[in-house]
Amino acid sequence: MEQHGLALGSLPWQPVDYTPPVPAVEPGCTWAYKILPYIEQGNLFTNFNYTTPIKTYMDPGRGGTGLTRTTWGGNYDGSVYASGPVTDYAANSMLIGSGLNTTGPPNAPTYGPQWSSGPPSNWASYHRTMLRIADGTSNTLLVGTKALALQVRDNRGCSNFTMSNGATRGCNDDPITNPGPGVMGTLRAIGPDDVWYASGDGAGAAVAGHTYKLDSGWTSWYFFTIEFTKDQPDLDSFNRWVGPYAGGALIVLADGSARTMNYTTDRAIVLALCPPSGGEAVSPP
Fold it and tell me: What is the rounded distance in angstroms from the CA atom of residue 78 to the CA atom of residue 95?
């Protein structure tokens, strides 16, 4: 699956002095940038740079520098979204969404035109609150250790990597400077309500609690990707949470509790933990 980052020329609205990320455009930035003041990184939030790794975002079982191999050249170009700190943790996109959430009637999914023409305050944001997690905060996944193919560990921030059979696959390891829409480097469990390109015309498969059905081009493999698994070569990391540990994948639920999820956990359970209002009668095992 191709990554869905922004191409130059279709970049979202921004003030003149957007580079690097600044608090003025915080609504359009990644969750990992937004919470910096709450993890004792307030100075980095207000004075962001591309050379400071964030220890809190790095899993000690993986190691590495905490930075992408690409460096920002100082100009407003593609390196803006390919450089800087990376995170080993991915948030649940079905819970937090992005700035380009799907809008419009269920049979004609689209997205708000404000994505490219208006300030972040006008974007189609979820504005999720605890009270709007109808399934319960203890039954909804918030963040977990994101999947990485073993080939990506020493090539953080890459766009693609070469598999054992010579083919290429997306790294899904965008840095925290890449806001989306729906980039897999900081998110997992992207669903049809989260970004318009996952939505179809109502003829695809349904995800519980979502207004829109999956586009037919996604349904043949989408549900197969929602799982907890272990780091391995050639891994398709698109919607997966994973772990470098034999015991299981580490996740945090929306109530703040942390737990280790067994890699044999049924996919139906993993999927049920993602939508905040799916109505599924399931609890984390």
Answer: 28
pLDDT tens track, the chain, 285 positions:
233 333 333 444 444 445 578 887 787 788 999 999 999 999 999 999 999 999 999 998 888 899 999 888 877 777 888 899 999 999 999 999 877 788 888 888 887 766 666 666 677 778 788 888 999 999 999 999 999 999 999 999 999 999 999 999 999 999 998 887 778 889 999 999 988 888 887 778 899 999 999 998 888 899 999 999 988 999 999 999 988 888 888 899 999 999 999 999 999 999 999 999 988 877 777
Q: Cα 88 from chain centroid?
A: 11
* pTM higher than the cut 0.85: yes
**Sequence spans of domains, the chain:** 23-272
DSSP state of 124: B
**DSSP type of residue 47:** S
